[in-house]
Structures are given as C-alpha cells and as structure tokens.
C-alpha cells in the first residue's frame, strides 16, 4: 500500500474551535497565512488519489482539494470523519489518510513515512511523538465502516489503540487548540 495514488486524504477542518474563543481558529494568522492552510499546503504536495477537505459553512476551499461541507459541526469530529469517508468511498481507495487542519507543522516526509509503514491492506498506522497514537493516521479499507460510524467528538481514537506507530520529529504534531497554543508555536 506504499502508493499515495491509492489513498484518499481526508483533511478535517470543520470543528467548532470552542477553546479558541470568538475568533475562527483556522483563519488565525500564522507566518502570514491562515492557520488552516499550512497542513493543506503540505498535503497538496503528495499525489493522493483524492484530497477531501471537510469544512465548515463559508470556509474557503484549499487549492487542490474537493470540499465537503459539515453544516452540523456541533455533532463532533466523528461527524466530519463520516462525511469525509462518504466522499472518499466514491474513489474506491485502498486506504484513507486522516489529517487535522489545526496541525500546521506536519511534514511531507512524515506523511510519506506513514504511507510506507502501512504495508498491509488492513493496517492502521498513526503518528506519535511518544507512545500515544494520534493523527495524521492511515486506515486500510478494512476499517472504513468503523470510521464512517463513529460518533461524538472523539474521532477515530478507539481505532487508534491498535495502530502501528510512526515517530514524528519533535514539535511536528503540535495541535493548536487555544490562542496560547498559537502564541507559543515557534515560527517557521
């Protein structure tokens, strides 16, 4: 499965960002660009079978992505994941790679390591900076039904417990949840 051209990318970018306050987190400035575009630009450099961005209503569509609108972000991350999976299935991928738009420091090299580590069609491969599985994560086709039927704001966390881990570089998996997280993020 080490071929990105058989993998559909699902970029989750439709959260409510409650911990960020009144400002739209993904529109917040980071190094002269909206926070939400950093991950999208990195992922656009990989030749995926499809690039799907699950967005909130009115959000700009990242270049090179197909958009799916989540008009019910209050239903949690799992709803966004389900919407992304429904769109991805149309491409008949061997796997999906799930990434979060609020992780601006992921690298193309790390994503390629995840893909190379997948090996088997049924694999789950997740990122880690220690021993904790987290996105970006790759899920083989055997897990598509489970991804599409998750509920709440936990995403695919239960599925990640059985993931093979691929270590990321220190600081690469920083997830921006609050204005303080953004302020503490080292500039590129």
UniProtKB/TrEMBL annotation:
<keyword id="KW-0460">Magnesium</keyword>
<protein>
    <submittedName>
        <fullName>Molybdenum cofactor cytidylyltransferase</fullName>
    </submittedName>
</protein>
<keyword id="KW-0548">Nucleotidyltransferase</keyword>
<dbReference type="InterPro" id="IPR029044">
    <property type="entry name" value="Nucleotide-diphossugar_trans"/>
</dbReference>
<dbReference type="InterPro" id="IPR025877">
    <property type="entry name" value="MobA-like_NTP_Trfase"/>
</dbReference>
<dbReference type="GO" id="GO:0016779">
    <property type="term" value="F:nucleotidyltransferase activity"/>
</dbReference>
<keyword id="KW-0808">Transferase</keyword>
<dbReference type="Pfam" id="PF12804">
    <property type="entry name" value="NTP_transf_3"/>
</dbReference>
<feature type="domain" description="MobA-like NTP transferase">
    <location>
        <begin position="10"/>
        <end position="162"/>
    </location>
</feature>
């Amino acid at each position: 499965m080490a071929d990105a051209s058989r993998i559909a990318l699902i970029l989750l970018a439709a959260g409510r960002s409650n911990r960020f306050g009144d400002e739209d987190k993904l529109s917040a400035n980071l190094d002269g660009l909206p926070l939400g575009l950093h991950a999208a630009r990195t992922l656009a450099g990989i030749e995926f079978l499809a690039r799907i961005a699950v967005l909130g209503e009115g959000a700009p569509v990242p270049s090179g992505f197909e958009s799916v609108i989540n008009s019910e972000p209050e239903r949690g991350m799992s709803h966004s994941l389900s919407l992304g999976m429904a769109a991805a299935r149309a491409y008949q991928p061997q796997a999906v790679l799930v990434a979060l738009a609020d992780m601006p420091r992921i690298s193309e090299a790390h994503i390629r390591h995840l893909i190379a580590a997948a090996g088997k069609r049924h694999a789950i491969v997740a990122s880690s900076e220690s021993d904790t599985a987290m996105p970006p994560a790759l899920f083989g086709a055997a897990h598509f039904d489970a991804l599409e039927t998750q509920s709440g704001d936990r995403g695919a966390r239960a599925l990640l417990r059985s993931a093979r881990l691929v270590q990321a570089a220190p600081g690469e998996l920083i997830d921006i949840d609050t204005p303080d997280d953004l302020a503490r993020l080292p500039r590129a």
